[in-house]
Amino acid sequence: MSPITSTLLLLLTFTLAVNCQNSLARGFGDNINWKTLQDGLASAKVSQKPVMVLIHKSYCPACHELKPQFAASKEIADRASKFEMVNVYDDEEPEDVKYAPDGDYVPRILFFHSNGDFQSQISNSKSATKYRHYYYDTPSIVNAMDAALKKQA
């Protein structure tokens, strides 16, 4: 194989890897290292990082409103490297009740310890009691991320 062919194959492989990774962003920030739920939970056991799970739907107006704010937030991006970031979309939503602790509304953000235990006490203090894991702005997400990091320590 010629050096040019080898270089082109390497570039193609890298481009595909980056595009596959970024495809998990789904508009919530290409600069974040998003993972599937299974990969995020497995990685957390090794990295000892907490897990942040974002659950959203394609038909959800509130999800569409949150998306550009989330993607543009430097504060979220800075904290994301301290988490295993999981992006769950449409039919990927797990059926286990621990992923819908107070209902299956969206967008929903849940936090888990690195061992997979749900951090039920981490919630949006600005949301109604009935929808504790509903986040509609970036400051509330940043506050929850900070709280999850303190609980993990």
Would you mind describing this structure in some detail?
Helix 4 (74-80) packs parallel to helix 5. The chain is α/β, with parallel strands linked by helices. The protein contains five helices and four strands.
**Radius of gyration, CA atoms, in whole angstroms:** 17 Å
> Uncertain spans, ≥5 residues at pLDDT below 50?
8-21
**How many β-strand stretches?**
4
Percent in helix: 40-55%
What's the end-to-end separation, in Å?
50 Å
Question: Which CATH top level class fits?
Answer: Alpha Beta
Count of discrete domains: 1
Succession of helices and strands:
HEHEHHEEH
Shape: globular
CATH topology annotation: Glutaredoxin
Q: Compute the number of helices.
A: 5
Walk across the major sheet and give the strand order.
1-3-2-4
Quickly give the CATH architecture: 3-Layer(aba) Sandwich
Mean pLDDT: 89
Strand content: 5-15%
Which class of secondary structure composition applies to the elements? alpha/beta
Largest beta sheet, briefly? 4 strands, mixed
Name given to the CATH homologous superfamily: Glutaredoxin
Please provide a brief summary of the model.
The protein is of the alpha/beta class and 153 residues long. The protein has helices at residues 3-23, 37-47, 61-72, 74-80, 138-152; strands at 34-35, 51-56, 84-89, 108-112.
Describe this protein with a few key phrases.
alpha/beta, four-stranded mixed sheet, globular, 153 residues, Glutaredoxin
